[in-house]
Amino acid sequence: MPLVTTKKMLKDAQEGHYAVGAFNVENMEMVMAVIEAAEELQSPVIMQTTPSTVKYAGLDYYLANVKAAAERAKVPVALHLDHGSSYGLAMQALRTGYTSIMIDGSHESFENNIAVTKSVVDACAPSSIPVEAELGRVGGKEDDLDGGEGNGYTDPEQARVFVECTGATSLAVAIGTAHGLYKGEPKLDQERLSEIRKVVSVPLVLHGASGVPDEAVRESIRRGICKVNYATELRIAYSDGVKDVLNRNPDTIDPKKYGTAGKEHVKAFVMEKMKNCGCAGKAV
Ligand code: 13P
Questions:
Q1: Most exposed of 19, 81, 195, 222 (fewest Cβ within 10 Å)?
Q2: What pLDDT does residue 148 have?
């Protein structure tokens, strides 16, 4: 079916008390892996690209890939700009045909975050394209940027004001996750999440889910998370698959051979996470 937006997908998730998995894709095999996983599990799915991925091949390239995959599929698929770093990039993604946009003003002051988020929300509204925003700082290595320790957890009262002032349709919260892998076991501030949920009605988003124990992800979903982002572990899965083939047979020159292995590893990982998020069987 044609690409859909994340609006109904996330509303359904919120009402059904599950989360939709959002997977960062970087090449055609990763797109194929994610769509196969979604089809096999009858799950709605979000594929997303960061600014550095967009820089690698271009918004139109990823749109073409994901659109082709979605049109062959029977499950709802959305293409989301992850960590949109500027108003300009958000507008390019909108014009290209992305069906969901994130504007990440979390590195700005509270006031400037509100201003840039509102401007993107206003520009996307006529096309009914939903906008995810971020408040607080999710640390770690996010895209090409080092987010550091991510000291700024989301303040519930600020979150309430932020959503009210901007009209953002979903909100990424900082509750102790970080992008990339963790040195120890991450401790999520689940109480804070519940406090945010009490005062913010839009769907909440968990970034930095690679390396977060499945039980902690499920607990965050029980407390209001409706979208869970995975990037690093997809990269690892893909690379493991490719390395596996090349280590066993260094003379392999057919990209389809090691690409298929990468794809299968990513597919297995995505299926596991879809089941954990509770979105398996929720394609409607
Ligand atoms: P990870 O790389 O930790 O999975 O984070 C993904 C993410 O939040 C993308 O926005």
A1: 222
A2: 54
Cα radius of gyration rounded to whole Å, the chain = 18
- Prediction pTM value: 0.96
- Whether 1 maps to a domain, the answer reads no
Q: Which of 82, 143, 144, 254 is catalytic?
A: 82
**CA of 23 relative to ligand 1 center, distance in Å:** 8
Pocket of ligand 1 (CB under 6 A): 24, 82-83, 179-180, 207-210, 229-233
Query: Residue 230 CA: which ligand 1 atom is closest?
Result: 4
Question: pLDDT tens digits for 100-149?
Answer: 999 999 999 999 999 999 999 999 999 999 999 999 988 776 665 555 55
DSSP for 190-219? HHHHHHHHHH--SPEEE---TTS-HHHHHH
Q: How far apart are CA 187 and CA 41, in angstroms?
A: 30
Q: What is the dihedral of CA 55, 56, 62, 65, to 10 degrees?
A: 170
- Its domain, for residue 147, covers 6-277
On whether residue 282 sits in a domain, the answer given is no
Using the mean position of ligand 1's atoms as its centre, give its distance from the Cα of residue 277 in Å: 15
Domain with residue 185: its CATH number is 3.20.20.70
